């Protein structure tokens, strides 16, 4: 039996300074004509994904890419083709957009699309675009509940919009009580709160979703509802997250941290090697990091950084 032929595609997510991203309609005469997608096209013989993206965006819309970061890799089986899509975040380009193939363009706000239908292979990408560059983890264990809640109010007022409530030292009743207080504060500011390892409680309390520790991830057979991420340390755990269709992962430990003194670290080279295997979700770096490490993280292929102590200073 012959192996299924995989069509390799490069796709660009053009992102403006205001955070909006570009979708284009598929031209008449192509499969799924009129459906919306991220612009790009097939790799030609000998091309890298970035070279193909640069060529395709020049041909399709007349722009020259000046800054593009590899982001996600999505494999999808359509009735007409089995495709492997290499998505890039494109933050810099020269020239004005022109529909060279008769397509339409539409700038979109993450989480609030106003065009449809969108090609199904793009669904994880659209969710990923709603995620922040900095993901905060709570730190009640060190600050104490009263001080942390006060700091949380300050951070929410300053724009904190995503939070993982991770407090493994608390018993079930104490954690649930803290979760209720946290959610009440967060909802006033539109902050998404993920509970740590407790999908049932997240559903009961109306949290945005759940973040799974690595051990729980490997034992999970059905993806929890809502937003769902996980902590991972190696390729096997990354593969399990992909199998479950998670929205994101945090990968570490990247650098030495107070939580894991003397422990093994990936460094950005080790992090980049794992991320570079290609995963259908954004990956955050974690471990000894702060917002100051954001550029290094993204250069290594990360969505951004997940931070604990640095989030509450």
TrEMBL record:
Catalytic activity: 8-oxo-GTP + H2O = 8-oxo-GMP + diphosphate + H(+); 8-oxo-dGTP + H2O = 8-oxo-dGMP + diphosphate + H(+)
Gene Ontology biological process terms from the UniProt entry: DNA repair; DNA replication; thiamine biosynthetic process
Highest taxon of the lineage: Bacteria
Cofactor(s) for this UniProt protein: Mg(2+)
Membrane spanning stretches: none
EC id: 3.6.1.55
Family annotation (CDD domains): NUDIX_MutT_NudA_like, TMP_TenI
Keyword Hydrolase: yes
Alphabetic keyword roster: DNA damage, DNA repair, DNA replication, Hydrolase, Magnesium, Metal-binding, Mutator protein
Occurrences of domain Nudix hydrolase (ranges): 6-133
Short name of one Pfam family: NUDIX
GO molecular function, one term: metal ion binding
InterPro entries named in the record: Aldolase_TIM, MutT-like, Nudix_hydrolase, NUDIX_hydrolase-like_dom_sf, NUDIX_hydrolase_CS, NUDIX_hydrolase_dom, ThiamineP_synth_sf, ThiamineP_synth_TenI
Residues annotated as signal peptide: none
PANTHER family in the cross-refs: 8-OXO-DGTP DIPHOSPHATASE (PTHR47707), NUDIX HYDROLASE FAMILY PROTEIN (PTHR47707:SF1)
NCBIfam families in the record: PRK08999.1
Assigned protein family: Belongs to the Nudix hydrolase family.
Name of the featured protein: 8-oxo-dGTP diphosphatase
Organism, scientific name: Chitinimonas taiwanensis DSM 18899
């Amino acid at each position: 039996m012959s192996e299924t032929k995989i069509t390799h595609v490069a796709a660009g997510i053009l992102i403006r300074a205001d955070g909006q991203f570009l979708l284009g309609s598929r031209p008449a005469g192509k499969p799924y004509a009129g459906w919306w997608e991220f612009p790009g096209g097939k790799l030609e013989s000998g091309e890298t994904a970035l070279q193909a993206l640069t060529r395709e965006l020049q041909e399709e819309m007349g722009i020259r890419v000046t800054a593009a970061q590899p982001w996600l890799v999505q494999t999808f089986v359509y009735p007409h083709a089995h495709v492997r899509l290499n998505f890039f975040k494109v933050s810099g380009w020269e020239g004005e957009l022109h529909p060279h193939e008769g397509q339409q363009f539409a700038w979109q706000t993450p989480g609030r699309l106003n065009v449809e239908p969108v090609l199904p292979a793009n669904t994880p990408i659209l969710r990923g675009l709603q995620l922040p560059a900095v993901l905060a983890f709570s730190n009640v264990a060190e600050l104490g509940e009263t001080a942390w809640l006060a700091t949380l109010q300050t951070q929410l007022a300053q724009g904190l919009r995503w939070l993982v409530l991770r407090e493994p030292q608390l018993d079930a009743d104490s954690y649930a009580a803290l979760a209720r207080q946290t959610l009440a504060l967060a909802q006033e500011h539109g902050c998404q709160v993920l509970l740590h390892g407790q999908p049932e409680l997240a559903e009961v309390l109306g949290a945005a979703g759940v973040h799974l520790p690595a051990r729980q991830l490997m034992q999970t057979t059905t993806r929890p509802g809502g937003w769902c991420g996980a902590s991972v340390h190696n390729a096997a755990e990354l593969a399990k997250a992909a199998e479950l269709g998670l929205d994101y992962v945090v990968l570490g430990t990247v650098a030495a941290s107070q939580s894991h003194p003397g422990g093994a670290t990936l460094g950005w080279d080790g992090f980049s090697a794992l991320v570079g295997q290609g995963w259908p979700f954004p990956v955050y770096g974690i471990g000894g990091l702060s917002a100051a490490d954001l550029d290094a993280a993204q250069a290594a292929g990360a969505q951004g950084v997940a931070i604990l102590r640095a989030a509450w200073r």
